Amino acid sequence: MSKLKAAIIGCGSISKHRHLPEYAGNSEVEIVALCDRVMSRAEAMQGVYGGRVYTDYEELLSNEAVDLVSVCLPNYLHAPVSIAALNSGAHVLCEKPMATTTEEAEAMIEAAEKNGKQLMIAHNQRFVRSHQQAKELIEQGAIGKVYSFKTIFGHGGPEGWSVDGKDSWFFKKDEAVLGAMGDLGVHKADLLRYVLGEEFTHVSAMVETNAKEAITVDDNAICLLKTESGVIGTLTASWAYRANEDNSTIIYGEKGELRLEDDPTYSLMAAYTDGSRVNYELGKIQSNEEGKQTSTGVIDHFVEAVRTNTKPLIDGEEGKKSLNMILAAIESSEKGHTIQL
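Below the sequence we write its predicted structure tokens.
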């Protein structure tokens, strides 16, 4: 079986730490092209992974016959570059948030359908073992009816992670459009939809820029959410957690509670109303800290979906639903009232 030819558009930190090493680690893939508007970045990755180098994605797409394209660019470019790649005949894995508006997301979905190609959004929280185990326990009725939840994704901000540091596109409204909500909040919106197995109907939020100076996007948000069955809870996304990262989720039900990524040793802790407890050691969640990079499972899932021509776990429709929750939260904060999805 011939290898799938992959191109990575955008050679910043997410490519360096996630996409490129995971493609390189997949025996069914060959990295054939790299693109970044800063030539030296693409060349640095070429030195490790090979492939031809480009500074113009349109030139890459016209010159190379690629099967897979990873779009690892500032948020405002996700939709146009993904659509161009789909139209060129490639399957696309796009970083989150998939787009900056619902209309952009729908155009991406339409391009994938028109060209008969897979579109996957890189929401890696669905592949975390503790999250998958929690979903199974809820489906099995282990904690009975779910009443409430709280989920948090907070750290000191992308300046310690982004290749451009404090000058990163993450902080610029015209390139990022969405701040901590697009960086972290959308991950948790997607996680809640996945773990709880239902959609959200109401969003109320306070979204602020109060932790960082000279940035033009949000950096601190707290959202109140309600599902179609009436489960209520909170989602926090923050670049203001400077001392320690928090990536925890707690789910409260009639028969017990589940604590996900809330303990350094046990990635899932279940406590039941009958007094019993079960602690699970399921490996560490992905972290942005140097030296803690492990495989996300995203690339392998994407490759398998393309190989078998099956819908990926997070296709365009799934990505759009999670994006819409974040857009509704920002609208709620701006208008000062609850938004019905």
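Residues 193 and 199 are 6 Å apart (CA to CA).
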